[in-house]
Specification:
2 domains, Immunoglobulin-like, about 20% helix, six-stranded antiparallel β-sheet, alpha+beta, five-stranded mixed β-sheet, elongated, about 210 residues
Length: about 210
């Protein structure tokens, strides 16, 4: 008496399963061999970073510029040729208001100051803070470049209303005189009032041109 036989194997079943397994293996191998920049886990974060950079650049309006409507001759198209000028300098004529990232700074034309202890040259500096944070200011951020290219530091004489140092609250303002010892002989020519903050509210140096 013969024993009953089980179901006959389907023709080609084993070879089909092997082919599928081989195809999956080849797909996984090709995926592993792709360059890193073509893999989804790298491409997606990279695309997000690039998009953030593009949005930041396109929406940023910061920087330092001369406020429109200032005195004739105010400019921010690049510094003129004066000794020590750089491409990063923001240059304006004396009396112009310069917007330094929301802190608007103005200087008056240089005039002789009190000469009790020697001849001086003074300008009145005004800060208007239109930002939402306190802004620092100090007398010692200011310098004067004379027609010979010498750069002079501020002094403590020349005015009864010297600029001091401190902070300006959002929406506040402060004003004071910045005085320098006049160069010997008071040479005629171009004098540059320079604002180069130690605690930087702007990446640029600001220069106001005076002709005496």
């Amino acid at each position: 008496m013969s024993q009953p036989r089980g179901p006959e194997p389907q023709p080609g079943y084993g070879s089909l399963r092997d082919a599928r397994a081989q195809a999956l293996a080849e797909k996984a191998y090709r995926k592993a061999q792709r360059p890193w920049f073509k893999r989804k886990r790298f491409v997606v974060p990279l695309a997000i970073i690039v998009l953030i950079v593009i949005i930041s650049v396109s929406t940023s309006g910061g920087g330092t510029s001369v406020v429109p409507g200032g005195p004739a001759g105010a400019q921010d198209s690049g510094p003129p040729a004066f000794p020590g000028a750089t491409a990063d300098d923001v240059v304006a004529q004396a009396g112009a208001a310069v917007d330094a990232e929301g802190l608007v700074v103005t200087t008056t034309a240089l005039t002789p100051g009190d000469d009790t202890f020697g001849e001086t040259l003074c300008t009145t500096a005004t800060y208007d803070n239109s930002t939402d944070a306190a802004a620092m200011f100090t007398l010692f951020d200011w310098k004067l470049q004379d027609p010979n290219g010498a750069i002079l530091s501020t002094g403590l004489i020349g005015s009864d209303n010297p600029l001091s140092r401190g902070e300006i609250a959002p929406g506040g303002n402060v004003s004071g005189d910045v005085c320098f010892t006049a160069p010997q002989g008071n040479p005629a020519g171009q004098y540059i009032v320079l604002l180069d903050p130690s605690f930087r509210f702007t990446a640029e140096r600001i220069a106001w041109l005076n002709t005496l």
